[in-house]
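User: For my dataset I need records formatted as: sequence, then structure tokens, nothing else. Please produce one.
Assistant:
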Amino acid sequence: MKEKRKKEDVTEIEKIRHSLSHILAHAVLNLYPKAKLGIGPAIKNGYYYDFEFPEPICEDVLPKIEEEMRKIIDKDLPFKQIFKSRQETIKFLEEQEQEYKLDLIKDIPDEKFSFYTTGDNEFIDLCRGPHVDSTGKIKAFKLTQIAGAYWKGDSNNKMLTRIYGVAFQSKKELKAYEKMLEEAAKRDHRKLGKDLDLFSFHEEGPGFVFWHNRGLKIRNKLIDYWRSLHRRDGYEEIKTPTMLTTDTWKKSGHLETFLDKMFLATPHGAEKMEYAVKPMNCDGGMLVYKTQQRSYRDLPIRMGEIGTVHRYEASGELHGLMRVREATQDDAHIYCRESQIKDELKGVIKLCNEIYNTFDLEIDHIELSTRPAKSIGSDEIWEKAESTMKEVLKEERIEFEINPEDGAFYGPKFDFHLKDCIGRSWQCSTIQLDFAQPENFDLTYINEEGAKERPVMIHRTIYGSLERFMGIIIENYVGKFPLWLAPEQISVIPIAERHLEYSYEILKKLRDRDIRATINYEDETMQSRIRDSELMKIPYALVIGDKEEETQTVSVRPAGKKELGIMKLEEFMKILKEEMNI
């Protein structure tokens, strides 16, 4: 478990947000006296509280709850901490009929429990705090949404109602945040995915993406770009099966540590062997490594895989492309000697920077995630791995944050958090240093003395998953992809039917040069078709009329920009070539 933070380490804004979760619970009980209380922590930008309501509620009631919260705040009620013994706590919670709070303390061995009161015992809640001095200290907050959340995050438990809110120290900050949310709504990849005909989701496959032709074109361009860089950097590409025997996943430790996320399969018929659909690509990669004896001269070996993995995410966790049950990871596993670790880690960091720069994504911060409570490997191995990763960051002069106890179960990791153009942060790349799995799978190479030695393994992704990365760039570009990535680059628009023949000549020349182009000759006006082209975020429209046909030219209209005028196709192709030089 992570260590509890000291009260003096909690910032003022965190106190405000925690206090608001307390006030939210107070307001809900004022309005719904029979509601049951779950938990209510402060989170990034705000807070939430989980409730069991006597009857379902919807977001229409949020203004009513918010108004009740403001009444409590306006009273400027003081927060006061009190303590009760275990026996007193149980008695109090039983009298209040707060069964979820009783369930919470079962897991806590303490003999004394902290409560906070609001005002003259107007409201009292089991809580460690800290809080602001009084409710009147709170100036800028808003309730934002309602969602479902399983008690303790376990789908076997009851689904509670989670109410979210945001809070800041000033109304100016709140207004700026609300403006950012408005901008984010315009960029929602789920809406843009539908509007631009990129992908869809269906009840027949919840959590699985159905890629449309236009979306698949973008996805394939991402893979092509990834492959070109990895060929350059000496990676070999492999492909491993979707399912492996459960014994394989037991050997790697995934079956024990990841079972609740895995899809299991038992085939019909005589064969009784059990299989698991892979949640990660590493086990298959290690089996490929073992197919031949390796030499120190072979190392480092860099094996890349565009591998599809399946993880059972609870329905409440699914979110468009950002959280799915089937994801395609741009995985790679590097097998190297200890003396090569630093250079390989630095090489991956350099590759991450190159790829993110291509997509105009700025690194917000990098985390070093350390050993989790549930892990494999000795203390010595973990200490060596963590110290090596710290040294790499310091040698590269990279600022980083420690994310305690959040590493992979087999090794520490770097997590890259990216900042998009409206300031939101996204976690994408992960780079993991692993001394444990080579031991589990008995991976070896022959050293200079002819003896077997154990390689070190680096696990890494850069996109993270193609699905999530596409969600991020769809929102970052607002669907206006750079020319090289756009699913449809050119829309050829003949003014009249008599211009169709020449338009098809232009289309063929474009396609012969691997330009993604179509003809738009719907039963609409030319201006409507140009507008349709812009709505579909196609970078260029080529308008073809009498003058263009007579002079064997095209009229070039970039989306959302000033017309470039009439020019020869070859001249236009030079513009395209220069723009697509990624």
